[in-house]
Design goal:
8 strands; globular; alpha/beta; TIM Barrel; 8 helices; 216 residues
Length: 216
Amino acid sequence: MNHLVAPSLLSANFLNLEKDIEMLNRSEADWIHLDIMDGVFVPNISFGFPVLDLLKERTSKSLDVHLMIVQPEKFVDEIAAAGTEYMNVHYEACTHLHRVVSEIKKRGMKAGVTLNPHTPVLLLEDIIRDLDMVLLMSVNPGFGGQKFIEHSLEKVKVLKELILRKNARALIEVDGGVNLETGKRLVEAGADVLVAGNFVFSSQDPIHTIHQLKSL
């Protein structure tokens, strides 16, 4: 399949959020990526369920919710109620990962697992066939606008090999430092979904920038 583009709402203008959502609705973006942070798992706080509920009413784009929080399993029902398609939880935050993945799927969502830059891909060996997506962080989570970590390209290749070897169907999503140059290399390495925040929303023409990312 052609790769997907998921602009990250973390970089949007929250004083005029409706305008940015309408822009995404008009664009070629496939999903809207939402980073929910608690100030504990990552050193930042973002937004919560009121924003998710707003999106449910204002967009037909698929919602890709990335929970950068401790004990994400506590909020499966709320995430599902917001019309979420993909719920991403961190490997590092889930002691009983298989149970959390099962609960996500029971609520009718697709299950994603996120890996921090230091977390090896091979830790997913025993669960990869249960996953719909793996999100590789190509920056340290918590803040937008960071520099792309080059080793992420090798992680994409290792993950692709694992997926093929296990006859799994998980998509590979990458978030952090994505632009036209890094995005092209990620797609060539095997990435299926590109998350871009600062690169899209700081652009003079975000709709055209999303088009460029889709055309890589």
